[in-house]
């Protein structure tokens, strides 16, 4: 392939692509170091260097949305709570490095890095994080749902991880995967309830409230509308609850039609 060394005579697309990659990885380094504002400054430039960065035809659609979300929550795809179990700074960097490929939509590369870390480490907490991420990657493809579930099952069957936060996360994700199967909500509901019972103080900040929403949704799908409504009346009182409007719509449909589906 042609190698272009002189940026003065190089075509604009070549210069922009190189500069875009620099901004992406400088932002990665900044956020890895805990500097979300600096990461945002670098990543904000990406949209001006790649007109397709936010379009569905882009190599990695929704890139800007993912990058800004990472800045907002000051994390890649693994939360601070999850990474707290990893004491090795270099290992945290490797996990975040793989996560960056996920954010960019380069899923095969992300999967390869997580798989390599899983093979090389003897730390079960790190292995669990790799399996959670690999399961999440596989779950994006509907044809790989069984692969995703096997990754989550590995955590749930590993005795060294019993009662850990990662075990709870795997249970939650496994239940989510079941929801995509015919009448999977019947098997998912007891898992959500076990998660809500045992992991209230040991969870990802964004999982617990989502599990409550899923519990109510499962009851709706089981046509247990009265029980679902009672739980919703309590649930909607929680602050900063992003699921209230969605559930209100579902109950509106039930009131009008007498059923949800």
First-to-last CA distance: 55 Å
Order of helices and strands: HHHHHHHHHHHHHH
Extract low-pLDDT stretches. 1-15
Broad shape: globular
Indicate the structural class: mainly alpha
Q: What is the strand content?
A: under 5%
Count of extended strands: 0
The count of helical stretches stands at 14
Return the average pLDDT rounded to an integer. Answer: 90
Helix content: 55-70%
The biggest sheet amounts to: none
Instruction: Give me the Rg, rounded.
Output: 21 Å
Summarize the structure in short.
The chain has 261 residues and is mostly helical. It contains 14 helices and no strands. The protein has helices spanning 12-32, 36-43, 46-49, 63-73, 80-83, 89-103, 107-120, 124-140, 145-157, 165-178, 185-198, 208-221, 225-235, 244-257.
Note the main attributes of this structure:
261 residues; mainly alpha; disordered N terminus
């Amino acid at each position: 392939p042609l190698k272009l060394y002189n940026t003065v005579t190089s075509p604009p697309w070549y210069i922009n692509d190189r500069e875009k990659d620099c901004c992406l990885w400088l932002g990665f380094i900044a956020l890895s170091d805990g500097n979300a504002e600096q990461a945002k400054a670098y990543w904000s430039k990406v949209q001006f260097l790649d007109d397709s960065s936010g379009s569905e035809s882009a190599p990695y659609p929704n890139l800007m949305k993912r990058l800004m979300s990472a800045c907002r929550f000051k994390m890649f795809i693994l939360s601070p709570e999850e990474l707290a179990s990893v004491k090795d700074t270099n290992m945290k960097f490797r996990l975040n490095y793989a996560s960056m490929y996920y954010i960019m939509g380069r899923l095969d590369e992300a999967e390869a890095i997580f798989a390599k870390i899983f093979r090389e480490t003897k730390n079960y907490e790190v292995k669990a994080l790799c399996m959670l991420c690999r399961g999440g990657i596989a779950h994006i493809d509907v044809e790989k749902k069984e692969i995703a579930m096997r990754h989550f099952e590995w955590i749930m069957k590993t005795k060294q991880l019993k009662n850990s936060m990662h075990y709870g996360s795997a249970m939650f994700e496994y239940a989510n995967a079941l929801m995509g199967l015919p009448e999977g909500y019947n098997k998912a509901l007891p898992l959500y309830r076990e998660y809500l019972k045992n992991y209230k103080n040991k969870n990802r900040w964004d999982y617990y409230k989502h599990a409550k929403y899923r519990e109510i949704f499962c009851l709706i799908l089981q046509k247990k509308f009265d029980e679902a409504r009672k739980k919703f009346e309590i649930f909607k009182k929680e602050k900063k609850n992003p699921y209230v409007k969605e559930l209100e719509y579902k109950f509106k449909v039930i009131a009008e039609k007498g059923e949800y589906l």
